[in-house]
Amino acid sequence: QKEVEQNSGPLSVPEGAIASLNCTYSDRGSQSFFWYRQYSGKSPELIMSIYSNGDKEDGRFTAQLNKASQYVSLLIRDSQPSDSATYLCAVNWDSWGKFQFGAGTQVVVTP
Amino acid sequence: GAVVSQHPSRVICKSGTSVKIECRSLDFQATTMFWYRQFPKQSLMLMATSNEGSKATYEQGVEKDKFLINHASLTLSTLTVTSAHPEDSSFYICSASRSSGGSETQYFGPGTRLLVL
Fold first, then answer.
1. Nearest CA to B4 among B102, B99, B93, B115?
2. Which of A43, A45, B68, B71 could share a disulfide with B111, CB 3.0–4.6 Å?
3. Is residue B88 classed as helix, strand or coil in its secondary structure?
4. How high is the pLDDT of residue B63?
């Protein structure tokens, strides 16, 4: 059974602070990893993808991947109230592009 | 970009009727599309994988005769909820898979909110 685990939260973050979200996965053979943001009542939107160990930065977002520890994280710098959403971690584990999603971490940025 | 549309965005129907939802990739071709369902405050649940020109692959517990999927072209997949009942009321979301750098990335449509009375 392939599993992706996330802390459900809510993660309360003061405006301007760094939000740190974590995700672990069970399939050591996984090669592609994704973070999606989902606002309440909306569909998920892609934030970042990461394929290699290390950090990948895109604007205020940084994804970190450690395949040895089967761990992927997302940092949101200078958090804004508009970042309040549920963040989904997804792992691609087959050639058809099928994903295993975590349950999501709810982030609440307080002014 | 990678834009995926869904139609309709919202539908209300009577119990026993059938509802068709369309999912289109607007600026890329998608060999594979996925259909998800999401109940309030719950996580995404994959219903089926739709491959162009072949039969869909359904997840365990999803009735293939109730949720008919057709992937007629590289840009269009449809989900038909047959004989809908109130328990089928949910948020249905499709995604289209796009190949990039040797990896597949899923891009989601805006979703269809179904209410069965």
1. B93
2. A43
3. helix
4. 95
Pairing of strands A11-14, A105-110: parallel
Q: Of A8 and A19, which is predicted with more confidence?
A: A19
At a CB cut-off of 8 Å and minimum separation 6, what does B20 contact?
B78, B79, B80, B81
**From the CB of residue B59, how many other CB atoms can be counted at a distance below 10 Å?**
13
Which of B43, B57, B90, B107 is the best residue to mutate to test the A interface, defined by the most A CB atoms within 10 Å of its own CB?
B43
Asked if the model's pLDDT at residue B56 lies above 80, the reply is: yes
Paired tokens of A107: 């982030």
The pLDDT > 70 percentage for chain B reads 99
Q: By CA distance, what is A94's nearest residue in B? A: B104
Torsion angle (degrees, nearest 10) of CA A5, A80, A42, B38: 20
